[in-house]
Amino acid sequence: MKLPVVSGKEAVKAFGKLGYVTVRQTGSHIRRKHQSDRSKKPLTIPNHKIVGKGLLRKLLRDAEITIEDFCSLI
After folding, report:
1. Is residue 3 part of a domain?
2. Which domain holds residue 30?
3. Given 5, 28, 59, 72, which residue has the most CB atoms within 10 angstroms?
4. DSSP the chain
5. CB atoms near residue 33 (< 10 Å)
């Protein structure tokens, strides 16, 4: 499946549905941690108009979800 083009705001909302909560924000970068599962890596999501493909792929890998799962969350 093809990687979707999403904004930072959409990515933050999608990862929120997985249980990630905002810990802090520095400038336009939002730091999120998983609420209950501390073994999952924290995510840093830029609040930009478009999140780059490479970064989005890394965020999906760190959150341990597939592209299909992410597309269903958007």
Report:
1. no
2. 8-73
3. 59
4. -PPPP--HHHHHHHHHHTTEEEEEEETTEEEEEESS-TTSPPEEEE-SSS--HHHHHHHHHHHT--HHHHHHH-
5. 16
- Asked whether residue 47 is assigned to any structural domain, the reply reads yes
33 falls within a domain: yes
Coil/strand/helix, residue 68: helix
32: CATH: 3.30.920.30
DSSP H/E element including 52: none
Total domains present in the chain:
1
pTM of this structure: 0.89
Of 56, 73, 72, 74, nearest in space to 3 by CA: 56
pLDDT for 30-56, tens place per residue? 999 999 888 899 999 999 999 999 999
